[in-house]
Structures are given as structure tokens and as C-alpha cells.
Design goal:
It contains one helix and ten strands. By secondary structure, the chain is mainly beta. The structure holds zinc ion.
Length: 116
């Protein structure tokens, strides 16, 4: 399955390929405030159309390892970049920013990010 996603105003636009298998409802201090519902995919499954990730505003906190990109026009945070424990580049998609996804159709796993 190929999904289209992006921020509200359209400045950030991307596609991602894969099957939504696991959704994480993270309770960390950032996700709880911005309403993140996360699907982790390998970076090779993620295609950013505009603009380049290193040209986007980026927020880091705590260990600063995860790059939380956001739109400086509309304020949405549609994806973040991180690495898996083995070093594999990963993208965390905020599935609320994907088009045509019925969030009620998926099992949502609570992730205790506040204590990790
Ligand atoms: Zn935007």
C-alpha cells in the first residue's frame, strides 16, 4: 500500500509504502501535546517530495537523537527521523497526517515513552 501524507498547508508532502502493522500512541511529553500516533517505517520506504528534510525546521529534546520535523507555516509535525537500535535509519510517520487512513481500523499500542 502506498500512502500520501503531509502537513495541513501542503508545504510538506511525502509518500510512504508499506502496511500499517503497528500504531504507537506515545505518552512522552512531546507526543502527548502534539497528538502523535506513530507508525515506524524504514527510511527506504519513505519518499519526501518537498522540501528536503534538512531544510525543515526541526525540534529535538531529551537525548536529541530524534529529529522531529515540523512545518513553519501550519505547525503540523507529520514525521520524525530516528535510528533503530541496530542503526537502521527509520522514519516515524504521524498517521494522523496520512490521507485516507481509517484510524479506527487499526490496533493501537500504548507506548510508555514518558518513562523511556
Ligand atoms: Zn504546513
Amino acid at each position: 500500500m502506498r500512502y500520501q501524507g503531509g502537513c495541513h498547508c501542503g508545504k510538506i508532502s511525502f509518500s510512504v509504502t508499506g502496511d500499517i502493522d503497528k500504531l504507537l500512541d506515545c505518552n512522552c511529553s512531546l507526543c502527548s501535546k502534539r497528538g502523535g500516533l506513530l507508525w515506524f517505517v524504514g527510511r527506504d520506504k519513505f519518499e519526501l517530495k518537498s522540501p528536503k528534510a534538512d531544510e525543515l525546521p526541526t525540534y529535538r529534546f531529551n537525548t536529541r537523537k530524534i529529529a522531529h520535523h515540523f512545518c513553519d507555516v501550519c505547525g503540523c509535525s507529520p514525521f520524525s527521523e530516528a535510528s533503530a537500535p541496530d542503526g537502521t535509519p527509520m522514519t516515524a510517520i504521524n498517521v494522523r497526517c496520512l490521507e485516507g487512513v481509517d484510524l479506527g481500523a487499526y490496533e493501537i499500542t500504548r507506548y510508555d515513552g514518558r518513562n523511556h
